[in-house]
Amino acid sequence: MAKDLDVVLLADFYGEMLTENQRKFIEYYYSDDLSLSEIAQNEGITRQGVRDAVKRAESQLYDMEKKLGFAERTRKIKEALEIIKESTDSINNYNMNISLSREVNDAVVSIRSAIDSLDE
Length: 120
Fold this sequence. Notes:
By secondary structure, this protein is mostly helical. It has helices at 5-14, 20-31, 36-43, 47-68, 70-99, 102-119.
């Protein structure tokens, strides 16, 4: 079983919808980088029991993302914000070197402020 970083991201979005054990096992396996055997030994259950819980949790996380799409939507928003940041830099550079418009400068400052508030 390859460790998939997408599962960590999906757990951030949907982890509260998993059972306590599923959440715990996903955290141990992905965040703490414990093996299935180590988790099983620590929890006093079989390796197969841990594997089943992890697989079930992964399946539920992917299913929730397929239905709700919050992680993908967040990724697209971050990409769009990066494009907006780059565009405001270009507009600001053009304004500073060519037109020196106070209105353009104020608009760039306003856009950057809005972007920064979303990045927090």
